[in-house]
Every structure is written in structure tokens, then in C-alpha cells.
Amino acid sequence: MINSLFQPGDYHFSTMDIAAAISIATGHYSDNEFNKFSHEIIDFSYHISHEIKESIIKNKVIRDGLVDYGKNISLIDIKSDRTAIECLFKDKKELFRHYFSTFNNAIYNHSIQIWHQGNDNTWIDWTEKNSIRININPYKIREGFFLIGFDYRDVTNDKRLHVASNKDGYEYFNKCLKNSSRVWMQ
Q1: What is the pTM (predicted TM-score) of this model?
Q2: Residue 103 has pLDDT above 90, yes or no
Q3: How many domains does the chain have?
Q4: What is the tens place of the pLDDT at every residue in 36-52?
Q5: Angle, helix 92-101 to helix 82-89, in steps of 10 degrees
Q6: Among residues 91, 65, 55, 71, which one has the least CA distance to residue 13?
Q7: Which domain holds residue 70?
């Protein structure tokens, strides 16, 4: 997610995005409860977002480089509403919806369906209500999209994901590029 700041494009992360990513990356969401670790994740997310933005503001080389990539530093939201983040942590579906929405790009027609755990279980639930659909650029999917614990289908081409690879900060659906690493396999 933070890597995406240093890539061309419109995406600018927020504290809420970081908190959602940490919750998912650590598996904190599995219990679907709000507890002391939830507060620690949120506090750490505020800290990370403040430190990154402050470093960018203080470093002319980084700041100018981001401007060259078309990034507007003022769009990095370091003041996400804490109550809204807490609500995300109490509802897995909304947490997943928020996380994957950061990858959504409405200008593309290419659609991916993502199955996830339901609020009341700890396994992937292949019912329609426990899936999310988003549109993506199929040629360059931002790093962090393909995660263990989720299942994926390319709706546009009606193909299930069998393998996802990562190369140079981007991920690829059912492709193993030369010198890439595999991030998801069935």
C-alpha cells in the first residue's frame, strides 16, 4: 500500500487504509471483535501515516519525485476518523470492502470477484453475499491485492485464480512472469 505512493497513479493512502491493511495482513480480523489489539493497530496506523507524510514534507527530493509521479501530498489523509476505523474493525465485510476498494479503478471494465469470510465464520464463504466485485487494471494490479485467505475470480474472462505473481511492485492474475515471486497459489 505504501509502495503505491511511489508509483504513478491516483491512489493516495489514508490512516484508515493502513489500519485495514494491517488488520488483514496480521489476521486480526478473524475474531471479528474489537479489543486492545485493535486500538494498537489503529494507533500504529496513525503513527505510520504521520511519519510518512512528515518525512515527505521535510525531504525535497522525495517531495519533488512524488510531484513528478503526479502525487498530491495534501491528499494523504492522516486524520481519518477513528470511530469510522473502529466500525470497520467490527464488521469483516466492511473491512474487506474498504481494503479492496483501494484497488478499484472505475475507468476499467475488467472485473474481479473476491470471496471472503463471513462475519459469523472463519473460512472463505462462497456465497454471493460474502463476495466483493471491483474493477481493476488487469495489466498492473497494485501490490497487496492477492492475499491468502481470499479466493478470486476474473469475472470478465470467467476464470478462477490459480496463481498470482508479483514483480516490481505489481501483481498478475494467473501469470508467472520471469523473475517474479508467487504470492498466491491454489
Answers
A1: 0.90
A2: yes
A3: 2
A4: 999 999 999 999 999 99
A5: 120
A6: 71
A7: 1-102
For helices 60-68 and 36-58, angle between their N-to-C axes, nearest 10 degrees: 90
Q: What does the alpha-carbon distance between residue 168 and residue 31 come to, in Å, rounded to a whole number? A: 33
75 and 2 both lie in a single domain: yes
Mark whether 94 and 181 lie in a shared domain.
Answer: no
Q: What cell was used for 82? A: 477513528
* 13 in the same domain as 97: yes
- Chain-centroid distance of CA 132 in Å reads 13
Q: Do both 73 and 128 map to the same domain?
A: no
Are 26 and 76 in a shared domain? yes
Q: Is the pLDDT of residue 176 over 90?
A: no
- Is the pLDDT at 5 greater than 60? The verdict is no
Tell me, letter by letter, the H, E, C secondary structure of 141-183.
EECCCCCCCCEEEECCCCEECCEEEEECCEEEECCCCCCCEEE
